[in-house]
Amino acid sequence: MSEQKISIAYDHPDAGQTCCSTAQAWARTPQEPAADEKAELISRIKRLLKEQDAVLVAHYYVHPDLQDLAEATGGIVSDSLDMANFGHQHPAKTIVVAGVRFMGETAKILNPEKRVLMPDLEAECSLDLGCPVDEFAAFCDGHPDRTVVVYANTSAAVKARADWMVTSSIALPVVRHLMEQGRKILWAPDRHLGSYVQEQTGADMLLWQGSCIVHDEYKAKELIEMKAAHPGALVLVHPESPRAVVKLADVVGSTTQLISAAQKSVAQEFIVATDNGILHKMRTLCPDKVFLEAPTAGAGANCTSCSHCPWMAMNGLRNLAEVLENGRNEVHVDPAIGLRAKQPIEKMLEFARQIKLPTRGIGNA
Ligand code: SF4
Predict the structure, then answer these.
(1) Ligand 1: which of 275, 293, 314 to mutate, judged by most atoms within 8 Å of the beta carbon?
(2) Is the minimum distance from the CB of 278 to ligand 1 under 6 angstroms?
(3) CA distance linking residue 235 with residue 251, whole number of Å
(4) Residue among 194, 209, 28 at smallest CA distance from 124
(5) Which of 125, 128, 155, 191 to mutate to test the pocket of ligand 1 (most atoms within 8 A of CB)?
(6) Atom 8 in ligand 1: which residue has the minimum CA distance?
(7) Domains observed in the chain
(8) What pathway or pathways are given for this protein in its record (predicted)?
(9) What are the pLDDT digits (tens) for 301-357?
């Protein structure tokens, strides 16, 4: 089967100070297996997971088949931190991460004694790519008076350079906590999430200027038109989206928080501004409600992602079965870097415990 690749443009900030030059990456485009092949793959993967003493942890944004398979085999579908924590608590010796590279790395950092596999090690993230460690370290060195807070969507090496790691649902309390201590903050890599946190808290924050290629594409003008056409719909927005889109939200939150809002709300219709992979979980949990994708089209649109992350889409049943069979695509993190990267993660986990924020509720892209 011939492999097809698509080219992807992403923001590469110039030392974080100004936005942005554009860099190019790529993603493999998956081909859907036919129904009979799909059934055979699913039963093979179930057998291999047992044989390999492995557990499948999947992100909300991956293909519904993988989400269903993770849950059907005793694994989990969630955000990246929950995925890593679940793997840590689960007795399986192997964790298979269906997501993108930084998620596999986070799982390995928290579980260095376990084998961590991924269907495709080249599944990237524009936030991670747009924040190379050498440039980021130079940026940090230029501002030694600032506490370095990084988002989960970063490499192990960038986490190792940070004082704190946060995910989107704990970012506000962590930044408020640092403000109480009189700290000034250096934030990376997502500029939209950083602006949102800055606006909500009033903190002194210097922002790295990265962005998510999926959330950056949501369009405010077209969203206003869509709201007018669906006046009863609640607008759910992930804060990696542009400010003008966040302003139109009824609920702003992490993946887990948006799912929870959809469950709790009496509304029957929702416009969702985050990767459309999440709609599978929302529709499963709320079968009587209607979920619509927020618009990515309109003036200036290039539709790199069309509401779906091309790197998350690199996870499929075929490459999942292959890695379980051949053991390739194991995630490795330099032990010294892993040890340093673990500190800001554990600091966040401890803080979450102190403020009684359930881990299960900590979400990120
Ligand atoms: S959806 Fe955005 S933040 Fe999430 S992995 Fe893809 S590029 Fe990264």
Answers:
(1) 275
(2) no
(3) 6
(4) 28
(5) 125
(6) 125
(7) 32-125+311-333 (3.40.50.10800), 132-212 (3.40.50.10800), 215-293 (3.40.50.10800)
(8) Cofactor biosynthesis; NAD(+) biosynthesis; quinolinate from iminoaspartate: step 1/1
(9) 655 558 999 999 999 999 999 999 999 999 999 999 999 999 999 999 899 889 987
